[in-house]
Amino acid sequence: MKIICIGRNYADHAKEMKAALPTEPLYFLKPDTALLREGDFYYPAFTKDLHFECELVVRIEKVGKHIAPEFAHKYYTHFTLGIDFTARDLQQQCKENGLPWEKAKGFDHSAPLSNTWIEKSEVKLDEAEFKLFQNGELRQIGHPKDFIFSIDTVISYVSQFITLKTGDLIFTGTPAGVGPVHIGDSLRAVLNGQTLLELNIK
Ligand code: MG
């Protein structure tokens, strides 16, 4: 199982990161050890600036390579929410030195994921809204209709390079409002009013 993460897929987040809008999907991978399905998150010692990035997540349901955009919708059936934890200080160092981001993005438990999956038919992407609350305060609001690259486009694009397998996850990018977490915080991710993920930072 692999975790494929899309970067800069919302214009408002690219702007807050002072990053250019991508002209083709930008993706990176997290290893399977990044997944956190239950329990608390423990703030890692190697960063002093850990950021939350709440994202809509899809799960790949069958093997595919060179998937045409018009068939991409057949490769996923459910949505959920996850957090793409990012050690922003390490990521900034990597960027400044032209180095890969894995250290800042792919560490253990950097991808907490809800265990509740919502059927695709129950989520209209052009109306869907997800939110991230930190200690009860609203930090992020995401509307998948604002994706720069649609899920189908992303699946088609990535499958040119990597065979997608059953169980692979795609984190589809984060909207604006990312920010630091601290020990003692609680995070709550909500899709269309339904709480899907609650996480305590220890
Ligand atoms: Mg992200």
Secondary structure: elements and pairs:
Blueprint lengths: L2 E5 L3 H6 L9 E5 L4 E2 L13 E3 L1 E7 L15 E8 L2 E2 H9 L5 H4 L5 E2 L5 E2 L10 E5 L2 E6 L8 H8 L10 E3 L7 E2 L5 E6 L2 E7 L2
Bound molecules: magnesium ion.
The site of magnesium ion has 6 residues, from loops.
What does the model show?
Helix content is 13%, strand content 32%. It is of the alpha+beta class and 202 residues long. It has 4 helices and 15 strands. The strands form 4 sheets. It has a 6-stranded mixed beta sheet with strand order 2-1-12-5-6-9, with helices on one face. A 4-stranded antiparallel beta sheet has the order 11-10-14-15, with no helix packed on it. Strands 7-4-13 form a 3-stranded antiparallel beta sheet. 39% of the residues are buried. The structure holds magnesium ion. Magnesium ion binds next to loops.
Q: Key terms for this structure?
A:
13% helix; Fumarylacetoacetate hydrolase, domain 2; alpha+beta; binds magnesium ion; 4 helices; 202 residues; 6-stranded mixed sheet; single chain; 4-stranded antiparallel sheet
| Number of beta strands | 15
> What is the helix tally?
4
Major β-sheet, in short? 6 strands, mixed
Please tell me the overall pLDDT: 97
CATH C-level category: Alpha Beta
- Hetero compounds: magnesium ion
Along the chain, the helix and strand elements come as EHEEEEEEHHEEEEHEEEE
Strand content: 25-35%
How much helix, percentage-wise, in residues?
Answer: 10-25%
The CATH H-level homologous superfamily: Fumarylacetoacetase-like, C-terminal domain
Approximate shape: globular
Low-pLDDT ranges? none
Q: Termini, distance in Å?
A: 27 Å
- Tell me the structural class: alpha+beta
